[in-house]
Amino acid sequence: MPAELVAIAHPETERFSTDEVIYTSPVSGSLLELQNSDPLPAPDALKKLWRERRMSNHPLDRSGVWRYRELLSFWPKFDHVVSLSEGNTPILDAPHAAQFAGLDHIQFKHQGYNPTGSFKDNGMTCGVAQARHLGMNRVACVSTGNTSASMAAYASAGGLQPIIFIPNGNIAYGKLAQALEYGAQTLQVDANFDEILALVRTLAERLGIYLLNSINPFRIEGQKTIMVEMMDQLDWNEPDWVVLPGGNLGNTAAFGKGFREMLAAGLIKKAPRLAVIQAEGSAPFVEMYKQGATALTANPKPETLATAIRIGDPVSWPKAVQSIDDSNGVVESVTEQEISDAKATIGRCGIGCEPASAATLAGVRKLVAAGVIKPTDRVVSILTGHVLKDPDYVYKYHTEKLDDPQGNRLVSRFANKPVVVPNDPDAIAELLS
């Protein structure tokens, strides 16, 4: 039976063809996800095959996404794939960060090692493949930065025209520079992320442009392989927790789906618990759980310096709820001060990340203090973006000039200020001694 798109969170199953340009059910408005009923090889055979592919120079095998293509068999063939050797991101030990969080041990899976410096590449390779499969010529996204950089790169590499819509003045320049460099037509709109997404969905349908935000179910498919690769790297020994930042909640949806499919395939025996961390000024998912609500209430004015998660109306929240419920997971929010301290701590490990990524370590520290995560638990924290995605933040923190969205100066507890010295070897020697 071929793969199909299925509506979730709807009493009656709605099924749609993968050859349709569709993102949500036109009947119920429910989000869609890919389902494939084709049988998989035995788990031991899959693990052996995937490990052997690490030594292959075949373009699909070099990708940390397409290497696991048995879980991505939505196309009769893979000739529409555009790969920049995405994935292949390391798992890094960080003793200093573990001590900061109150853990015996912590590991970071660093998605900033991707071609455009963020986890978006894992999903974008699948989204662009589907756009080419559908015969689309133009693709678009709304982005606070990472999505635009990734889409621009993959669309251009695949011969498509990328069109980027961004909130005017609310994007880190390290990310905007990538979109411009990769040839995207970039439109700065006087609105926030959620308002622009509604605008672009209307324009995409009118102008025949394929939308590649995380509402696109093929993006989610690529992102689920982050967890498959993680388990492969851990020799299929499940951690107790996977901690990730929450913005549009696409990764939360993707990770949950990945674990469900690995369980069904017999690749793992249990799924790790998921912990989703949001910035305090942009935490509608956390608020939903705190209030015991069954639906998310959008925050019309989300505020955080962690621009990658400055999203007040995350479209993937229904799928994210399923992921949290399936894994007995938790959600938590952290302050700007907590994010900035955690980010500097990660940097002292020789690793570095963008601000949104550091929300994970801040959240782990808070959950350990609350007794939710035990000091002996095995924790893998997801760093979603590269440290140079937002160099202004880094400079302002270490020169003690970083203000929160309300204009209050944050305390740079781990500042590493540059020192101006004279052109005098004796004076410099005295300073260094």
Distance between the termini: 72 Å
Q: What is the radius of gyration computed over CA atoms, rounded to a whole number of angstroms? A: 21 Å
Low-confidence stretches: none
Q: What string, H for helix and E for strand, traces the elements in order?
A: EEEHHEHEHEHEHEHEHEHEHHEHHEHH
Helix content: 25-40%
Strand order of the largest sheet: 4-5-13-10-11-12
Number of helices, counting only DSSP H or I runs of 4 residues or more: 15
CATH architecture of the domain at 91-114 and 217-398: 3-Layer(aba) Sandwich
Briefly note the CATH topology name of the domain at 91-114 and 217-398. Rossmann fold
* Form type: globular
**CATH top level label of the domain at 91-114 and 217-398:** Alpha Beta
Average pLDDT, all residues: 94
Helix/strand-derived category reads: alpha/beta
Number of DSSP-assigned strands = 13
- Content of β-strand: 5-15%
Question: Biggest sheet, open or closed, and with what strands and sense?
Answer: 6 strands, mixed
How would you describe this structure in keywords?
13 strands, four-stranded parallel beta sheet, alpha/beta, 433 residues, 15 helices, six-stranded mixed beta sheet, Rossmann fold
Describe the structure.
The protein has about 425 residues and is an alpha/beta fold. Helices cover about 40% and strands about 15% of the residues. The protein has 15 helices and 13 strands. The strands form 3 sheets. The protein has a 6-stranded mixed β-sheet with strand order 4-5-13-10-11-12, sandwiched between helices. Strands 8-7-6-9 form a 4-stranded parallel β-sheet, with helices on both faces. The protein has a 3-stranded antiparallel β-sheet with strand order 2-1-3. Helix 8 packs across helix 9. The chain starts with a strand and ends with a helix. The mean pLDDT is about 95.
